[in-house]
Design a protein that fits this description.
The protein has 10 helices and 22 strands. With 401 residues, it is α+β, with helices and mostly antiparallel strands. The structure holds flavin-adenine dinucleotide.
Length: 401
Amino acid sequence: MKYDVAIIGGGIVGLATAYQIQKLKPNTSVVILEKEESEAQHQTGHNSGVIHSGLYYKPGSLKALNCIRGYEMLLKFSDDNGIPYDLCGKLVVATEKHELSQLDMLFERGEANGLKGLIWLTAEEIKEREPHVTGIKGIFVPQTGIIDYGLVAKKYRECFENAGGEFRTQFKVEGIAKSGDDWVIRDGNKEVQATSFINCAGLYSDKIAALSEKELDVRIIPFRGEYYMLSERAQHLVNNLIYPVPDPNFPFLGVHFTRMMNGHIEAGPNAVLAFRREGYRMRDIHFGELIQTLQWPGFQRVVAQYWKTGMGEMWRSFSKSAFTKALRKLIPEIKKEDLIKAEAGVRAQACERDGGLLDDFRIIERPNAMHVVNAPSPAATSSLSIGLTIAEKWIGIVKET
Ligand SMILES: Cc1cc2nc3c(=O)[nH]c(=O)nc-3n(C[C@H](O)[C@H](O)[C@H](O)COP(=O)(O)OP(=O)(O)OC[C@H]3O[C@@H](n4cnc5c(N)ncnc54)[C@H](O)[C@@H]3O)c2cc1C
């Protein structure tokens, strides 16, 4: 069978894209090709489960636009499909004076992105909301919430399959070639023929892009995010979501406390270079992938720029005491023995050849092909909006050819 479009990758972005294509053009034949046994086995199934409000992102960026629109779409989809979520709000807390200007900047960004009801908190007001947190000033963001993105992805898949879409598992794309006007996409001797394809392969999106692109100016750098779970004894120390002020020189949010939908409290994630793209443990190494990362000129620039922060993150990854110390800045009562190692996640962060880490989402458009080469956080929150953006662009690229 020949399909109108093949989507590579059954994470939340691939699934949302498929769902939106079906909505925009109901008679389109769509297949999702996924290398694992089911959907959402990588970033989508290993994240913090936060519904981001849009506080952090540069106004007008794809992240800001898609997060704000995607937030509303996600809540509506969840309401319509009985997916539980909790808009519990979050605190961003400054613990040192030098963080105050960055906190001001976040407040301004939040307002510029249209967030309503942001509240400045004094040290006492922080304690009224989170009695065990010590800070000098904070922001309360009422829109932020929590959800289980694994469940969301499962529902996207269900809707997609109910509308006639095909989700093929254990299909690891290894080759993409032109055959006349069509694409032939291969896993060993299995093949799928499609008029167009969309690459949503997350941690391998650059590798998939390289199968049909001569020159690619981005590479995925995998950053592992490690978590600890708070022991039962320590759970009362956290009510909802507590974040530090992010380091403006680093594209990650800093280790925070998150109440998950299953009731656990998680602390993390840090951000350390993963020595394998799907390397969830420190000892997971793929020498080929690691060497390619180290040789990438853009990554060498990142090392030159962030080596100090990076070393700190590495140290906190090796040493539980150092990780505890970082958390104690927010909650001084946390003890090392309160932290139980939990599952890690790996972020797919694109890095430009001659630049640094890409801040915004990036989608490459080609005749009858598209590549989503940067969809890090908040792409889970934004998924239905990114999916719609891609679906609209897809209609454009198939019309042109
Ligand atoms: C630690 C961590 C915390 C995060 N926290 C949040 C948060 O709180 N809120 C938020 O909004 N976002 C968060 N994010 C970001 C969010 O999880 C990701 O942006 C989102 O899941 C990306 O979805 P995706 O579909 O692009 O990638 P993925 O979920 O990784 O899916 C890509 C899929 O492609 C498949 N694939 C790869 N190669 C091939 C191949 N050759 N053939 C076939 N299939 C292939 C993979 O198996 C995978 O299923 C977090 C991410 C991480 C890692």
